[in-house]
């Protein structure tokens, strides 16, 4: 599965050497809660999904983050409500999960996932998730302190889901899928080989305008000597993810990121089993394990301690911990 580069870096529990040094700041993270008030089920591949239990995972996460008392913010990496949620309950259910997040005593940054878009259109989702973004785009950035910037990408910018049927971005996505995936069901990877298996309807791509925006943000971050963490619902590196879960144009996005040295870590959700790797430029890629797939009584959430030279992810139960040291050569 391509874990060769990264597996050795997993650290279970807290590394003793980290205890003395205080982090610059820390934040909580969770992904793919995919709550729905429906009986448990299974994924396409047969992996159990605990739709009603996942809200308990979120509640325990918020409690832990609040107990910790020093997390500056929380990031939710998307898919808060499952696509199987009955549509007449979508709004109520999204509000219910947002309310759980609001119990965290600090800011919460949300990413939009495909399951969010199966439930509600962007025009309703963005205000509910308090995403400040022009024209329904889901991308934005924020800087919790001068040394760091977080860039949140909109992975469903070019997408066949979530925009109105006749929207130029829907049409562009459908044309793209038509050319790349010969199956009638565009969510089927049948016959697609290797990395082509990402050309599925439940994925999406970053459009031209967003690429230009990303370029400007990375240029500015470089000038300000900021370290950047890129967040995207869809994974950006095949070494950390199933091929079927990757952003359509992850390669273009990574080529742009690699033109700069400021990006240290990319974090994603969507690929429920999670993963980790370091790419050829020393950028870390962490795909978070899904809250939805926690058997009752177990958890998948965590927090990250951010230092000058590394980010340490501390995961609970299914979420694996990892110390991610930055490539010192990148700053030369
Ligand atoms: Zn997803």
Automatic annotation (TrEMBL):
**A Gene Ontology MF term for this entry?**
2',3'-cyclic-nucleotide 2'-phosphodiesterase activity
Question: Gene3D superfamilies from the xrefs?
Answer: 3.60.21.10
Question: What family does the entry list?
Answer: Belongs to the ADPRibase-Mn family.
In short, the EC number is 3.6.1.13, 3.6.1.16, 3.6.1.53
The signal peptide here is none
Q: Which UniProt keywords apply?
A: Hydrolase, Metal-binding, Zinc
Organism, per UniProt? Arachis duranensis (Wild peanut)
What the entry lists under Pfam families is as follows: Metallophos
Top enzyme class: hydrolase
InterPro entries per record: Calcineurin-like_PHP, Metallo-depent_PP-like, MPP_ADPRM
Assembly and binders: Monomer.
Q: Which CDD domains match?
A: MPP_Nbla03831
Q: Does the keyword Hydrolase apply?
A: yes
What name goes with this protein? Manganese-dependent ADP-ribose/CDP-alcohol diphosphatase
- What catalytic activity is recorded? CDP-choline + H2O = phosphocholine + CMP + 2 H(+); CDP-glycerol + H2O = sn-glycerol 3-phosphate + CMP + 2 H(+); ADP-D-ribose + H2O = D-ribose 5-phosphate + AMP + 2 H(+)
Say which domain of life the source belongs to.
Eukaryota
Cofactors: Mg(2+)
What range(s) does the Calcineurin-like phosphoesterase domain occupy?
A: 28-273
């Amino acid at each position: 599965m391509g874990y060769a580069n990264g597996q050795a870096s997993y650290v279970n529990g807290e590394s003793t050497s980290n205890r003395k040094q205080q982090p610059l700041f820390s934040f909580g993270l969770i992904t793919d809660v995919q709550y729905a008030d429906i009986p448990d089920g299974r994924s396409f591949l047969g992996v159990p999904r605990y739709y009603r239990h996942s809200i308990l995972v979120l509640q325990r996460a918020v409690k832990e983050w609040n107990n910790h008392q020093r997390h500056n913010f929380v990031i939710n990496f998307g898919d808060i409500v499952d696509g199987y949620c009955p549509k007449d309950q979508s709004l109520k259910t999204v509000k219910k999960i947002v309310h759980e997040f609001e119990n965290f005593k600090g800011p919460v940054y949300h990413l939009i996932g495909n399951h969010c878009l199966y439930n509600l259109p962007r025009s309703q989702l963005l205000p509910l998730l308090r995403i400040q973004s022009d024209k329904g785009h889901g991308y934005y950035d924020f800087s919790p302190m001068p040394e760091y910037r977080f860039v949140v990408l909109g992975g469903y910018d070019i997408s066949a889901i979530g925009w109105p049927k006749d929207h130029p971005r829907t049409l562009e996505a459908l044309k793209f899928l038509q050319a790349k995936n010969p199956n009638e069901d565009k969510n089927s990877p049948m016959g697609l080989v290797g990395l082509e298996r990402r050309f599925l309807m439940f994925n999406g791509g970053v459009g031209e305008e967003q690429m230009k925006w990303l370029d400007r943000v990375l240029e500015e971050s470089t000038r300000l000597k900021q370290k950047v963490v890129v967040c995207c619902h869809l994974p950006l590196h095949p070494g950390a993810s199933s091929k079927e879960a990757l952003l359509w144009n992850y390669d273009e996005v990574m080529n742009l990121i690699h033109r700069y040295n400021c990006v240290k870590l990319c974090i994603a959700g969507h690929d429920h089993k999670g993963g980790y790797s370091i790419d050829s430029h020393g950028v870390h890629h962490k795909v978070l394990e899904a809250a939805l797939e926690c058997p009752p009584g177990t958890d998948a959430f965590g927090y990250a301690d951010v230092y000058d030279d590394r980010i340490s992810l501390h995961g609970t139960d299914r979420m694996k911990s990892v110390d991610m040291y930055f490539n010192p050569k990148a700053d030369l």
